Automatic annotation (TrEMBL):
It comes from the Bacteria. NCBIfam families: TIGR02301 family protein. This is TIGR02301 family protein. It comes from Paradevosia tibetensis.
Length: 131
């Protein structure tokens, strides 16, 4: 199980890194949220959840906070969007912190599902908006 987590973590981190480094949307102030904002907020929430669950379940390997910071830096959001992305990350973290003190079977399952969702969401954002 841990080998599968490590593989999925590496794959997801690579996708998030690609998304952060290949970002090719115009930057600068935007009066309206970009079309990908809901997906970015969901990805931020997932990354916050992973930031809590991975160390808890000793699946480690990724620094999801650093990945989130890189993603925000690459997107260059205005202050309002930056705050919403950070808030989504924090919400994901606190949601699981309220539920789990130790790694349980359900925490492990949540970790597996969140890694899959993060991978899919990062891929979708990249293929729709960054190519």
């Amino acid at each position: 199980m841990k080998a599968a987590w490590h593989h999925r973590i590496r794959t997801t981190v690579r996708l998030v890194t690609v998304l952060a480094t290949v970002w090719c949307l115009p930057s600068g102030a935007r009066a309206v949220d970009p079309l990908y904002q809901p997906q970015m907020e969901r990805l931020a929430e997932i990354m916050g959840s992973l930031y809590f669950l991975e160390p808890l379940c000793k699946a480690g390997g990724a620094d999801w906070r650093a990945q989130m910071e890189a993603l925000i830096a690459a997107d260059e959001p205005d202050e309002d969007r930056r705050q919403r992305l950070a808030g989504a990350f924090n919400s994901g973290y606190t949601s699981f912190a309220r539920l789990y003190e130790v790694c349980t079977d359900s925490a492990s399952e949540a970790l597996t599902r969140l890694l899959a969702e993060a991978e899919k969401t990062a891929r979708d954002i990249h293929s729709r908006y960054a190519e």
